[in-house]
Amino acid sequence: MKLDAHIPSGPLAAKWDKHRFEMKLVNPANKRKFEVIVVGSGLAGASAAASLAELGYRVKCFCFQDSPRRAHSIAAQGGINAAKNYQNDGDSVYRLFYDTVKGGDFRSREANVYRLAQVSANIIDQCVAQGVPFAREYGGLLANRSFGGAQVSRTFYARGQTGQQLLLGAYQALSRQISCGAVQMFPRMEMLDLVVIDGQARGIVARNLVSGEITSHPAEAVVLASGGYANVFFLSTNAKGCNVTATWRACKKGALFANPCFTQIHPTCIPVSGEHQSKLTLMSESLRNDGRVWVPKRAEDCRKPPGAISEPDRDYYLERKYPSFGNLAPRDISSRAAKEVCDSGRGVGPGGRGVYLDFAEAIQRLGQGVVRERYGNLFDMYEKITGENAYATPMRIYPAAHYVMGGLWVDYNMMSNLPGLFVIGEANFSDHGANRLGASALMQGLADGYFILPYTLGHYFASAKPPKVTTSHPEFKKAEHEAVAFTARLLSVKGKRTALSLHRELGKLLWDKCGMARSEAGLKEALKRIPELRAEFWSNVYVPGSGGELNQALEYAGRVADFMEFAELLCLDALARRESCGGHFREEFQTADGEALRDDEHFAYVAAWEYQGPDRPPVMHREPLVYEEVHMSTRSYK
Amino acid sequence: MNLTLRIWRQKNRQTPGHFETCEAKDVSPDMSFLEMLDVVNEGLIQGGQEPIAFDSDCREGICGMCSLVINGIPHGGQRGTATCQLHMRHFKDGETITVEPWRARAFGILKDLATDRSALDRIIQAGGFISVNTGGAPDGNTLPVSKETADRAMDAAACIGCGACVAVCKNASAMLFVAAKVSHLNLLPQGKAEKDRRVLNMVRQMDAEGFGNCTVTGSCEAVCPKEINLAFIAKMNRDYGLALLKGA
Q1: Is A331 a catalytic residue?
Q2: Most exposed among A530, B131, B142, B155, judged by the fewest C-beta atoms under 10 Å?
Q3: Does A179 touch chain B (CB under 8 A)?
Q4: pLDDT tens, position by position, B39-62
């Protein structure tokens, strides 16, 4: 299979403008003839559903939560990047583009990232017009801060709740389209399969989570905006419901899965407190603007209270190792550095898996009032979870799975290799390469939904002219039948273990063998263990209740079944990528001082995996990454 | 610690519910309330019984999906805290805890502790937005908004739409929820053009959904996990009165 990213020709800065002109348009009167299914209602899904409906397409939007306002985009705290250069500090579209490509360790497509930087400014304008209450200066203009490893202040924010406010903006736009009948909303509905007819994505099969009814929904195009798969690690900062089901089942229907091993581990999360833990909580990395990260220099000091360790006995390891970026070093680098000091026995807190994030100096310099104003809600949240007051004693943090750069393969138009299947937001692989910079996920979700998909989807309709299909087509019947059978199979095992215990075991295995550091031996071990665990799942899981009612245990078991399959692909990809880059760190490939050793000669490509059925290994297709504009330098934050 | 739970069980919307008692053993004080329920559910499943249905998603107090009336108080009575952020260190060993779903005429019970809050979505659909299409928005800095106004709008916008204000109110009124959205948008210059029709339409929908009237007891503010201020209700009443006078 030849992968064509359909990147427009011409100079980088002119590609998107040229492409917008060259794309075909759908006559306004004809738009209502096209029906679009959007799966997911986060930033990408809600913004796409609303924008497509505004254009005149008929939209059906599905989410598994009880309301489209709850998608996990809501939890993003820090902010959203945009190349506005309001601060006159040297920012530009090109700089945001360059920072994102470099931050992604040169494993993303130049053209996609450049377009992302270009439309970033429009996003802010759009959100302001919608009433998103961004932070303001006293003069009434928009405030910015520097965030997540950027040396310019280009991050817009709404207290510590930027994701929530942006999502509410998109949700409100979506609500307006629902009220005028342009969007039909299906909350508490979960996509169980993608329907492909004559090679084109033509609809989905979904389960009503309240009644249990499984129904078919035809459309001229399907948009997956179903988020990421970080919950494959069981413990992650993702919401409990986040899952790989929609994208994995699309993969099983022929869509390619790209770079699944590019997972992001976030450095500032609250450490695990016990076996009961259901999820991990992220503390916004904006905290690193004022907090200093340290551990004791000597392992024997780790049990002392932090106040009893004097200044010369502390190792501010990020400042020491990366003097020019210090505590703001990018996520992958900070996470690995934390793991390294904990592995050396200098971690703090229960189990020795934690490092201090200390605000004492900031409080002395700025006063507690200023620190409270900047981070008050985060300090409150920390206290709720740990029972500790971070104004008085340093926070303890540890890395946790947080985001995934990998996802379904898409071309420049956000379309997968299956015509009519579009994938946007975290669910696709497109813009972040091997590592995502802070405040860029919100930017990408909204860029895809507001400003890219509405153009490229129209082009698809105008050029492909998909014929009408109905749910009586055999492919719909077949998919419906399979979804019913899958549900029945889960209920019929009647074993002894809960889906949760199996998921926890899988997650622990992946975290150990395919987490912050990966090795050939470890990955091979995981690849041996995963099929065993999957067999154990299918022979020994117990799912109570029936399929014809609200059954949360059944919903969850279905998602875990998909993680059990997907985990194998994740490890295969990690094994095949014999280099270290971004969030993917292979122990065999590091420099003498322990930094990631990238191999551009052999691995400057996108690995796109094709599913071959349950008994045959997937096949990898390569899309070479060509850098015409930037030089692939070695990332250094020293 | 060991706890006794008196939990509301209800098969579905149509079947009447009842309280059931179950034990929660070896509860760690570091668990969140929902993690404690997860552990109880694991035990129920392993014992061949149906687990307790309850809603949750983000588990960091921001998505608004979790609910639960705990010992008579929505979200359990810790100030500014949603159930998912309520930790077991606030309970005592040997305690009996009563757990119920949100109860209001406008919310149906779907199963056990899970409720249908779609009425809140329909209120937003009636006018809780600014009518701007994608594209064509002017530069974000063309319209200065004073810091005070932006902060106040943000105070209102912080509402997570959980419905605790409705669940606690003796009239099952949704006034705090509606007032938060009306105030967020009506305070900002961008929202001024639709100020009157917004408040009238949203209040009309609120009444149509069967939510009760506000008698200003302030219980809503007391249980709100985002501590939305009661003064926003006064602001909404003012906006509503003005809109009526203008005959909008």
Answers
A1: yes
A2: B142
A3: yes
A4: 999 999 999 999 999 999 999 999
